[in-house]
Amino acid sequence: MIKVGIIGATGYAGQELVRLLLGHKDAEIVWYGSKSYVNQKFASVFGNFTKLVDDICKGDDLDRLADEVDVIFTATPQGYLAGILTEDILNKAKVIDLSADYRIKDVSVYEKWYGIEHKSPSLIEEAVYGLCEIHREDIQSARLIANPGCYPTCSTLSVAPLARRGWIDMKTLIVDAKSGTSGAGRGAKVPNLFCEVNENIKAYGVATHRHTPEIEEQLSYIAGEPVTINFTPHLVPMNRGILVTAYATVNGSHTEDELKQAYIEDYSDEYFVRVLDGATPPETKWVEGSNFVDVNIKYDQRTNRVIMMGAMDNITKGAAGQAVQNMNLIFGLPEQEGLRLVPMVP
Amino acid sequence: MIKVGIIGATGYAGQELVRLLLGHKDAEIVWYGSKSYVNQKFASVFGNFTKLVDDICKGDDLDRLADEVDVIFTATPQGYLAGILTEDILNKAKVIDLSADYRIKDVSVYEKWYGIEHKSPSLIEEAVYGLCEIHREDIQSARLIANPGCYPTCSTLSVAPLARRGWIDMKTLIVDAKSGTSGAGRGAKVPNLFCEVNENIKAYGVATHRHTPEIEEQLSYIAGEPVTINFTPHLVPMNRGILVTAYATVNGSHTEDELKQAYIEDYSDEYFVRVLDGATPPETKWVEGSNFVDVNIKYDQRTNRVIMMGAMDNITKGAAGQAVQNMNLIFGLPEQEGLRLVPMVP
Amino acid sequence: MIKVGIIGATGYAGQELVRLLLGHKDAEIVWYGSKSYVNQKFASVFGNFTKLVDDICKGDDLDRLADEVDVIFTATPQGYLAGILTEDILNKAKVIDLSADYRIKDVSVYEKWYGIEHKSPSLIEEAVYGLCEIHREDIQSARLIANPGCYPTCSTLSVAPLARRGWIDMKTLIVDAKSGTSGAGRGAKVPNLFCEVNENIKAYGVATHRHTPEIEEQLSYIAGEPVTINFTPHLVPMNRGILVTAYATVNGSHTEDELKQAYIEDYSDEYFVRVLDGATPPETKWVEGSNFVDVNIKYDQRTNRVIMMGAMDNITKGAAGQAVQNMNLIFGLPEQEGLRLVPMVP
Amino acid sequence: MIKVGIIGATGYAGQELVRLLLGHKDAEIVWYGSKSYVNQKFASVFGNFTKLVDDICKGDDLDRLADEVDVIFTATPQGYLAGILTEDILNKAKVIDLSADYRIKDVSVYEKWYGIEHKSPSLIEEAVYGLCEIHREDIQSARLIANPGCYPTCSTLSVAPLARRGWIDMKTLIVDAKSGTSGAGRGAKVPNLFCEVNENIKAYGVATHRHTPEIEEQLSYIAGEPVTINFTPHLVPMNRGILVTAYATVNGSHTEDELKQAYIEDYSDEYFVRVLDGATPPETKWVEGSNFVDVNIKYDQRTNRVIMMGAMDNITKGAAGQAVQNMNLIFGLPEQEGLRLVPMVP
Fold first, then answer.
1. Residues in chain B closer than 8 A to C198 (CB atoms)
2. What angle do CA C194, C196, C200 make, to 5 degrees?
3. Whole-number Å distance between alpha carbons of B15 and A346
4. Of C151, C146, C170, nearest in space to C227 by CA
5. Residues on chain A touching D307 (C-beta within 8 angstroms)
């Protein structure tokens, strides 16, 4: 039985980790860390866990935690883990970080987009970017996982098969993304109030969103060339779900069938990526509460562009689900353990 | 392995049965019945089942189905099953009916409130009302289960401990209920369109809703006296969830603690009923996607009334989840098999 | 032209006042008061007013404000106005207070339910409760208006015709109310976040909500006897709207037609109260954005109870709209001036 | 007083026309046409008009109607008006058509994208495309107005200033649009049910949506060159609102300020177009219920692309509001008459 500690258990991603791990037969949570609710009953913060979790929230003593558990999930603000993580901790426990601290290899890029100094740049190189469908092999032997951002996960998986083959002109790539509001976190801020979000849609972080360099880094790796994109996220009045609509000009001459076939080939062995039949566009509802990413494409011969679409649950595959998938890989468990979640409709 | 057939698999309750049974280790669905989508791929109707269900929808040949399966779930319009169910079918397979056809013992009451003639009244007596927490013993030996309505399930469990003890004046009982829109079904009707339901709340079926006599019959059985109530359902702009707020005058003299203790005692062995701590009112979000019913009470000494509250997911505990719970009881399986669902937040 | 000052213009009710007064031909806002946004452009806080309002937010200097305007609207936290209002201010300008400070005549009741000391109890007696359909005459000569709470407005108007005639047993009255989330204000609090409210319904303030004594005081006045009720508000995932479902036992013998006729008579001259035809239950959507209250009743002869229903927009008739209606009465303008708003659907 | 007839008054756009015209001092509706509800009270279909409209719904006898009114609004299915409109009718009354029948000058393009034969192609040339900010002069003398589609209105106004100046490469233009659900109409279809739309987002009509050639025709006119674009609409779980996010490569060298200045110049005299300050992205909530279009841009020097954004209410400026604006222009009234609507928040 893998002993698990969570730092940041009372955020939306943190409590989703709890939901998933309660159904995982080889893992047991022994530390519910939450700065804001320390000494309070975890189930008093998230009533869904009434009678399922009796634990009291603990603090964030990472050193002590590392002694007690096999793996630590950190669902913490940017910069937090980078400020306290040490070689010593990594020698004692695996660390799967849901923040952005170790996702970007070039520390100056991180510091520029996040506007904070990185306190442990020496650990960045070792960290493995935990997008399992892309970096599976490296993940299996990692001590430190940089669990991907929600937008980068969905964007990368939606574009990868064509980027990999060089079938799209990466200089023309535009990613227009739409996210449910849980992606904004559980902080008490006016823009996230029900009456501000409900019956409204807007773009935000236009040309400046922090997930941009992360997507670019992954797509550069996959395409084998430096990639610079436009990425525009939008806030949608729903709890969960991310939809990516990406556009690129097709290189050379490819039929829609050929383009589609690239997805079918690349994802035929991937349980969590579902290539939809025919022209069916992905819908976030079809993946809600699960670790699936649904993808499909449409080729427009009028403009010689391909529209690449992906849908997933931002706090499952986009955060907690992928973190558990990483844990499974690291500990040599079946990749789907605890993640055979059937999407919930309606 | 229990072989399962579903008639009405493409309604909201039907497809929830599929979601639950896919995670049930002792059951296997072999018949996805759907009049409207016969010969179409089930997963093309409900995209959440892509790659999880490959089956094609079949028709509603109950006789043939009874030969092939151990248990039949019928999630069909009122009057449908009563028109085709026979002794012969019941000899071959257990039947768990999610419609109202066999819920009400007095056929004249059924015919009055539903406005249709009952075609197989002789089978009513045998049918067991499948509210597991109330009729567990009878369910275990039943051939035909009348799976309870969503409102009656939540109303009965919210009121039962005090009704059973005679601690409330049943003549004063008022049940004000609020439901998500999935309770209205998947029929293409103008009042259920997004733009009609969203940003709106209204009462409906005021003093005439068909679940009224069903609640009254169960509470009469529990209270040991004829019960007549006011029941008012409301339509809430959300997908899932039912909330019951019930009011009654307290008989004799009871403290809030005594009243609460009745719930704690009655439900201490019930996995699916959670009596909330302190004054916490139930919220539908805390039970979403699970088979739990959360209950709590508040005594108001100013009026000598007790406010009894219950929350559950209308298509899980209120329909498909309870149906699986009934199946488990009939087949001697652990009652929670396939139903250890952690509620999903947010 | 009436000169208007608003204290608390950047709350939901405050900015609704702005929306309404921009369409009022005899009023002009000259002071947009907002503690949190002082010196910021009002339209930068509420983008809907872009190009319509160029003003900068000012502070809350009530004395200076009283010199500059004819009427002051205060949409401020409980206790605020009571702490600074003086005879001198009332000599200079009319005050319409949207908080609860002067609504309850018995100061000890106010202090008990609100848990704060009242700092200007001597002004309570003079204040007129601004429920125009009930206290029209007194309002016309008032200097200080206690603008009613949203729940009390809807509850009182839904019950008044039967309470007035003694046709219902006031000891049996139960008010079950449902409100959109704007009623919770614009404060940055976790329980009001989109992901906490959306896809959820719950009761709150059960048996303890502060609007209870306010409803009781008005109904006592109307019924001519002391009234004690159960009042239970619920939070609904929508922006605007309040729905009241009230229950009471009918005194003596009255047909549904007689009961309905009471509403038709009492409200025949009331522009803002619409008695719906036949059995149509009120829906909040039908009144959204307007100053209307829609009411209807249903008599249940099985229980001898009448179900009284009312729907209105909580921040229009339940706050800012009624405040403007009060202003019109005080200044001798047509009561509907600026309030001939057609409800917006969908 | 202009006498108005509406065919299709019980659709969402039709009833919005009623809402707007009730507040128009120079227009009076004398014919509420509705095929589905003929002889029923209009206010019984849309309860928001209770006590405001007493009229009974009439049929669709266009000839008779033309005798009785000055202007006819048709909010009817595609192909309907083209099948019955005649020179004779146009001689008797102005016609403002909210369907697509006369929007596209090349009848073969219309027939290809709409899949229906056009029954009165001879009238297409005369019809004026009623995008007031672009074709104001022609509208003033028109008999037949092709009222623009919602997506084309928002897309065209968001892109026009840069297209007009040749400052963007029209071959690179991509329009990613998001719409509230009222755009799908009031037909009883499963995909528009609350439980299908709520908590979900998806693209639809990818590379095939009928508004594509309409946008292309307008932008070709403005840019002075043939324009072919990618246009992808998405369905958002909200009632009202359209958001456009458009991307294009900048021609030559232009600063963000220069690009922004183009919008400020072009729209300085346009009451209904609001160019937002600074980097504020448009939000649909800020225009809800009004005839405004909010626009803004962001230049990304990393990719040399400009992101052009626009937000409006799809059934006001995107349908009924623009139709009234056209009526005002035709009849020589102030363009804003009846349309000085303050957006409603929240």
1. 238, 346
2. 105
3. 10
4. C170
5. 203, 206-207, 230, 232
Of the candidates D211, D176, D336, the residue with the CA atom closest to the CA atom of residue D269: D336
Q: What does the alpha-carbon distance between residue B94 and residue C38 come to, in Å, rounded to a whole number?
A: 71
Cα gap B121→B107, rounded to integer Å: 7
Residue whose pair of structure tokens reads 């992360």 in the numeric block: A214
User: Catalytic amino acids of C?
Assistant: 150
ipTM exceeding cut-off 0.90 for this assembly:
yes
**B vs C: CB pairs below 8 A:** 143
Q: Kindly report the backbone phi and psi dihedral angles of residue C87, in degrees, each rounded to the nearest multiple of 5, phi listed first.
A: -55, -40
Contacts of B42 (CB under 8 A, 6+ apart): B9, B10, B18, B32, B34, B49, B53, B55, B56, B57
Q: CB neighbours of B84 closer than 8 A, spacing ≥ 6? A: B62
3-state SS string for B234-286: EECCCCCCEEEEEEEEECCCCCHHHHHHHHHHHHCCCCCEEECCCCCCCEHHH
Residues 6+ apart with CB under 8 A from B162: B168, B248, B259, B262, B297, B306, B308
In angstroms, the CA D167 to CA D146 distance is 29
Give the Cα separation of A166 and D113 in Å (integer): 33
Considering only CA atoms, which of C335, C345, C342 is closest in space to residue C24? C335
Nearest residue to A237 via CA among C318, D283, C327: D283
Would the CB atoms of D243 and A282 count as touching at under 8 Å? no
SS3 B343: coil
Q: Is A237 on the interface with C (CB under 8 A)?
A: yes
- Taking alpha carbons only, the member of A57, A130, A136 closest to residue A99 is A130
Q: Give one DSSP letter per residue of B60-118, joined into a string.
A: --HHHHHHH-SEEEE---TTHHHHH--HHHHHHSEEEE-SSTTT-S-HHHHHHHH-S--
C341 Cβ under 8 Å from any chain B Cβ: no
pTM greater than the 0.95 cutoff: yes
The model's pLDDT over C254-288, given as tens digits with 9 standing for 90+, comes to 999 999 999 999 999 999 999 999 999 999 999 99
For A62, list phi and psi in degrees, rounded to 5.
-65, -35
Residue in chain D nearest C20 by alpha carbon: D342
Q: How far apart are the first and last CA of chain C?
A: 34
Amino acid at position B52, single letter: L
Of A49, A51, A345, the CB nearest to B48: A345
| HSE (side-chain half, CA atoms, 13 Å) at D19 | 32
CA atoms within 13 A on the CB side of C107: 13
Burial of B88 (0-12, 13-18, 19+ CB in 10 A): exposed
D188 and B186 in contact by Cβ < 8 A? no
- The answer to whether the CB atoms of D286 and C50 lie below 8 A apart is yes
Q: Show residues of chain C in contact with A181, CB under 8 Å.
A: 193-195, 198
Say if the Cβ atoms of D194 and B190 lie within 8 Å: no
D86-141 confidence digits (pLDDT tens): 999 999 999 999 999 999 999 999 999 999 999 999 999 999 999 999 999 999 99
Per-position pLDDT tens, chain C of length 346? 999 999 999 999 999 999 999 999 999 999 999 999 999 999 999 999 999 999 999 999 999 999 999 999 999 999 999 999 999 999 999 999 999 999 999 999 999 999 999 999 999 999 999 999 999 999 999 999 999 999 999 999 999 999 999 999 999 999 999 999 999 999 999 999 999 999 999 999 999 999 999 999 999 999 999 999 999 999 999 999 999 999 999 999 999 999 999 999 999 999 999 999 999 999 999 999 999 999 999 999 999 999 999 999 999 999 999 999 999 999 999 999 999 999 999 9
Q: Spell out the residues 6+ positions from residue B109 whose beta carbon is closer than 8 angstroms to its own.
A: B213, B217
The answer, for A182 touching chain C at a CB cutoff of 8 Å, is yes
Of A249, A271, A280, A278, the C-alpha closest to A321 is: A271
Tell me the residue length of chain C: 346
